[in-house]
Write a sequence for this structure.
């Protein structure tokens, strides 16, 4: 029996691991110059786990494969003649366990991992401009106004460049002059993961109440987004929403009324 | 291949045990109702409670239009439905050391496990019996009978837990239950009556199996099976309407008072999506549990008893196929349900997908991935039954790679957890490479790929030991056409997936439909081509049933366990998105336990429930074995 | 039996693996506790109620415009809570109040019931108050809001707060005050109200106004010649932005607020100036 045979699947797993570890950031650096977008550890762990499972399944579905790849473990741990290799492998496994444990407990200077819920559930009602809005049923009043649509979008653009541009940027990419001063960084509206996923009433609520208006499930939250209903009028906010969707070419999520 | 005989002695003994268990199950809730009779609860109300329900369209057809609803309201002038009361903590009975919420949770979940099992099994038992009748192959008939035998203990356990659940609900949540009864009272009585019909069909179908096993009576027996399924399905649909009403109430006024039209209350926005999702899931679940039963028998049976092993291998395989037939459309039924949840209430939808429960769906993705991986592994191992399958081994590696890649895409979260260092390296919280995998477009592409790859594994298995003969067009070109079909389909799915990144959201959601259709068309066409190709076929090498490695049986266990756990988890999710409401937005839960459990808390309790369930399932599997063992002993004694 | 045990252990490993992944592999989100019931949302403590009164007194109610040490245009209210009872006994008192609380409320809605000596409209011998009714017009406080103001006044006077807390009806709760800056005046009449000109002046576009400041009706004719080398419009500008530069005959200095440069936009000034100078807009 070839005792080292299990090294083949192990090598395959390692190769795939490094391919992901270096390949994804390389690809990312081509898309966004100046960054090195590593796969976050939390996701990487799951990737590696399931790649390992997948590789093991592929290597062991035949009886021959199973014997060749799993047999050596039985050989090492059950055959009395394999003392030395048993000892060595036990030490290696122990060391690996120790290393993993050490990684978990060693002191670190990193800030704690922050989880933010990008699109927390909106409250059913939100208070802005001294009025109470029902987020579930709220519609953009200017959306229906086809006649003045272009004018409203233009006005929204003015509001945007006077107020929002500094963080969210001239091309709505979340890269305004101040963007790198913030954690979390300003939202990128062109990305299909932001306003393209949301209804206008949701966007209205997020603009109107800003960072402080986020529910506690979206914490820890350091968003520097101002509470815009204190600075802009309701109409200006609706206009700027029109502008955001118009500029990015996204259309707001429409909640279909039932029946 | 010889199959196991069924001993009628065993059947008789089993009948007695079952009768006692069932009598207990019936009496138990009845005793509860006596204590409560002062509060105007009828026995049938209590009985009816265990699922949650509504009257079907057939009996209330007229009620669907507004005018007759008004008419009803006028007729019942004396009795005006009250809006749900605003309760305070003290309105809930407090029993020291007894957590109402947890007890109801445990019992409801256990009831649902068994109920899903015993509703799912008769569906495919009936189908298998029909196949047996049509093909004239007795083996199918015997297998169907054995499946039914396994589910019989489940039937009484489902009833027992249902009774206990009803009892607990009326004791722990009296005000809530009287509100529900004020709306669904009629349907609860209907449910109770229907339950007797279900019992009648179950008895006659199972115990009449051998007696009716002749050309004349077989049709009657099939009719009984059909009746069993119709009764079971109606029971489930009725009880679903209670659950869907609690999530998305309908047929009530703004203050929550019943408007008088039961059908309107039943036919809420989530009723039909829930019905479809549960019917499909019941089939898949029933299949996976009977597969686990067969695997259990395969593992524990004497290795030298090759006939028994062959039988249980075949039984496990058949159950597995049933589970897959249910599993493949399940994600799409789930999408429909979620879409309707969004349609009903954006707030509920976002709570579900983007808020507190967002990570539950990553967990769900991992579990579904685990189910798909073990399913494929079982199919790959199945190739070992025949020598000639080695021809196809070269395809397994690429298939495995495709499945793993699709799976990794499928569970990549939308919100990535990153340390601050990682955020700096990535240049923000949006990951340029992984980010696009977080959205629905990628998930749809991934799940369709997963399904196609799994189906391909199945197709490979089917032709492992045979080859087409003859000069027919299909025999010659069938494989080439199928390869072209798969290539085109994958191309279509991937292109649609990529295309959906560049179009507006409203159109994007619609694109999942052609993706699903592509998958469905490939599966149907490939089956048809297979049929034509192998019209004339010959065995290349013998298929040796029973020649399966033990690890493949563990893949079947994995399937059943993951399925059960996932079902418990999604049960928590479905119920918890109501948050602090008994009936969403209408009837508030003001009991001390009205919190939304965190995911780890729920996972822990689901785990405990599943352990209890597993212990009961071992009992359930052991019952027929016990019965047949005693039967064997009896037979041996007779022989002496 | 051994196989059975193996299967059971296998199953336990799998499901506890799932539970472990949930616990340690996924971030923990703690759902929000059920919100406090709506019925209770109107329930606030007296301290909060007084806090609301404070905010209204110094903000939305525009009370400090006059009731402040700077202008001296109206009596200070820091001791009104205790003074109220004495006022009831005053022979000049014409109202129907019997308690301190009622007195203060009356002063808010029927301002002439008692006029503190020296603070009446000129020429009325302290019988008519220049103060507008705060439950009407631009200020328009609700009952609950006036209650909050009374509670606040009582608390700063150091007397017992007798105001009852508002009932649970949340619609009666004071709305969060709207920031004053967001709404731009769109007409002269609006601007006059927004900048409280009507409190003291009468003139064009002002139907009802006070008399603590000069009548603006004659401005159009005289503004151009009030100061040498200064155009009418520039004079209006100066009079608003730096009110103490030129004091009209018969009026006191330091009466008019001097914070307009910070509050008034140029567009709003134009509306006011056009109205005062009689410039017709299209």
């Amino acid at each position: 029996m070839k005792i080292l045979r299990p090294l083949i699947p192990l090598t395959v797993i390692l190769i795939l691991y490094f391919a992901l570890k270096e390949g994804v950031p390389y690809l990312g650096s081509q898309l966004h110059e100046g960054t090195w977008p590593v796969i976050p550890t939390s996701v990487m762990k799951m990737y590696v786990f399931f790649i390992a499972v997948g590789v093991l399944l592929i290597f062991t579905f035949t009886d021959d494969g199973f014997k060749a790849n799993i047999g050596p473990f039985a050989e090492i741990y059950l055959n009395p003649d394999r003392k030395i290799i048993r000892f060595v492998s036990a030490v290696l496994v122990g060391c690996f366990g120790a290393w993993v444990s050490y990684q978990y407990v060693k002191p670190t200077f990193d800030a704690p991992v922050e989880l933010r819920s990008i699109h927390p559930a909106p409250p059913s009602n939100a208070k802005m401009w001294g009025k109470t809005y029902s987020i579930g049923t709220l519609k953009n009043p200017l959306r229906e106004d086809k006649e003045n649509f272009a004018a409203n979008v233009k006005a929204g653009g003015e509001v945007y460049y006077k107020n929002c541009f500094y963080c969210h940027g001239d091309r709505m990419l979340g890269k305004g002059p101040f963007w790198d001063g913030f954690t979390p960084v300003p939202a990128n509206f062109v990305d299909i993961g932001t306003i393209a996923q949301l209804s206008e009433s949701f966007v209205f609520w997020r603009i109107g109440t800003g960072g402080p208006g986020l529910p506690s499930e979206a914490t820890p939250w350091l968003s520097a987004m101002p509470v815009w209903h204190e600075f802009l009028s309701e109409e200006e906010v609706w206009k700027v929403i029109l502008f955001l969707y118009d500029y990015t070419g996204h259309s707001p999520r429409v909640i279909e009324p039932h029946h | 291949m010889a199959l196991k005989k069924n001993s009628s002695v065993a059947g008789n003994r089993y009948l007695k045990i079952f009768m006692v268990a069932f009598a207990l199950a019936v009496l138990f809730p009845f005793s509860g109702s006596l204590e409560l009779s002062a509060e105007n609860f009828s026995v049938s109300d209590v009985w009816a409670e265990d699922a949650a329900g509504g009257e079907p369209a057939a009996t209330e057809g007229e009620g669907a239009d507004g005018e007759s609803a008004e008419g009803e309201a006028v007729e019942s002038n004396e009795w005006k439905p009250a809006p749900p009361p605003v309760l305070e903590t003290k309105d809930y009975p407090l029993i020291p050391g007894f957590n109402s919420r947890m007890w109801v949770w445990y019992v409801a979940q256990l009831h649902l496990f068994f109920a899903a099992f015993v509703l799912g099994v008769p569906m495919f038992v009936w189908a298998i019996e029909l196949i047996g009748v049509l093909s004239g192959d007795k083996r199918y008939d015997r297998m169907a009978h054995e499946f039914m035998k396994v589910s019989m203990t489940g039937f009484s356990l489902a009833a027992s837990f249902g009774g206990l659940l009803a009892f607990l609900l009326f004791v722990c949540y009296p005000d809530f239950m009287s509100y529900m009864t004020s709306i669904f009272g009629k349907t609860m009585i209907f449910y109770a009556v229907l339950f007797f019909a279900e019992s009648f069909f179950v008895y006659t179908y199972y115990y009449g199996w051998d007696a009716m096993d002749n050309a004349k009576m077989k049709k009657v027996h099939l009719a009984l099976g059909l009746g069993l399924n119709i009764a079971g399905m109606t029971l489930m649909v009725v009880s679903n309407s209670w659950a869907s009403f609690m999530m998305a109430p309908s047929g009530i006024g703004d203050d929550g008072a019943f408007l008088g039209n039961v059908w309107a209350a039943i036919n809420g926005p989530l009723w039909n999506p829930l019905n479809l999702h549960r019917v499909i899931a019941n089939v898949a679940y029933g299949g996976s549990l009977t597969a686990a039963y067969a695997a259990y028998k395969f593992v524990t049976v004497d290795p030298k008893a090759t006939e028994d092993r062959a039988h249980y291998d075949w039984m496990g395989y058949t159950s597995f196929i049933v589970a897959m037939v249910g599993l493949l459309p399940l994600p799409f039924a789930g999408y429909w349900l979620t879409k309707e949840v969004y349609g009903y209430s954006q707030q509920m939808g976002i709570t579900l997908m983007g808020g507190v429960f967002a990570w539950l769906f990553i967990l769900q993705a991992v579990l579904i991935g685990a189910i798909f991986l073990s399913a494929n592994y079982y199919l790959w191992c199945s190739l070992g039954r025949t020598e000639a399958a080695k021809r196809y081994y070269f395809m397994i590696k690429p298939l495995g790679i495709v499945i793993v890649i699709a799976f990794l895409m499928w569970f990549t979260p939308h919100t990535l957890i990153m340390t601050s260092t990682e955020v700096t390296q990535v240049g923000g919280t949006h990951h340029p490479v992984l980010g696009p995998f977080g959205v629905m477009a990628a998930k749809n592409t991934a799940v369709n790929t997963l399904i196609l790859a799994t189906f391909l594994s199945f197709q490979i298995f089917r032709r492992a030991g045979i080859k087409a003969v003859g000069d027919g067009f299909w025999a010659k070109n069938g494989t080439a056409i199928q390869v072209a079909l798969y290539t085109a389909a994958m191309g279509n799915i991937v292109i649609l997936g990529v295309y959906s990144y560049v179009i507006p959201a409203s159109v994007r959601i619609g694109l999942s439909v052609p993706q699903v259709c592509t998958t469905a068309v490939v599966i149907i066409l490939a089956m048809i081509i297979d049929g034509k190709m192998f019209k004339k076929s010959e065995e290349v090498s013998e298929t040796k049933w029973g020649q399966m490695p033990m690890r493949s049986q563990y893949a079947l266990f994995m399937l059943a366990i993951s399925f059960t756990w996932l079902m418990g988890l999604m049960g928590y999710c479905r119920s918890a998105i109501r948050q602090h409401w008994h009936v969403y937005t209408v009837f508030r839960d003001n009991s001390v336990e009205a919190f939304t459990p965190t995911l780890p808390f729920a996972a822990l309790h689901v785990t405990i429930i599943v352990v209890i369930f597993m212990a009961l399932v071992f009992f359930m599997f052991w019952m027929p074995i016990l019965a047949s063992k005693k039967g064997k002993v009896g037979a041996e004694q007779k022989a002496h | 039996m051994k196989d059975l045990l193996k299967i059971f252990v296998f199953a336990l490993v799998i499901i506890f693996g799932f539970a472990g992944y949930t616990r340690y592999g996924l971030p923990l989100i703690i759902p929000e506790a059920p919100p406090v019931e709506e019925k209770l949302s109107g329930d606030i403590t007296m301290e909060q109620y007084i806090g609301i009164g404070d905010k209204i007194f110094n903000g939305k109610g525009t009370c400090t415009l006059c009731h402040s040490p700077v202008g001296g245009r109206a009596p200070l209210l820091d001791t009104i809570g205790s003074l109220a009872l004495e006022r009831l006994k005053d022979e000049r008192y014409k109202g129907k109040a019997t308690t301190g609380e009622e007195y203060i409320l009356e002063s808010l809605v029927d301002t002439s019931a008692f006029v503190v000596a020296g603070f009446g409209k000129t020429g009325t011998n302290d019988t008519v108050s220049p103060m507008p009714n705060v439950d009407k017009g631009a200020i328009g406080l609700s009952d609950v809001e006036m209650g909050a103001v009374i509670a606040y006044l009582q608390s700063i006077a150091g007397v017992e707060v007798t105001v009852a807390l508002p009932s649970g009806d949340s619609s009666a709760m004071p709305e969060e005050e709207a920031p004053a800056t967001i709404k731009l005046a769109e007409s002269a009449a609006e601007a006059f109200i927004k900048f409280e000109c009507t409190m003291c002046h009468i003139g064009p576009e002002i139907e009802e106004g006070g008399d603590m400041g000069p009548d603006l009706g004659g401005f159009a004719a005289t503004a151009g010649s009030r100061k040498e080398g200064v155009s009418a419009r520039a004079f209006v500008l100066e009079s608003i932005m730096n009110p103490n530069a030129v004091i009209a005959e018969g009026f006191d200095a330091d009466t008019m607020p001097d914070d307009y440069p910070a509050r008034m936009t140029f567009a709003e000034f134009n509306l006011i100036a056009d109205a005062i100078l009689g410039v017709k807009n299209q």
Notes: Confidence is low (pLDDT under 50) at residues 1-12, 25-77, 633-639 of chain B. Residues 102 and 125 of chain B are 35 Å apart (CA to CA).
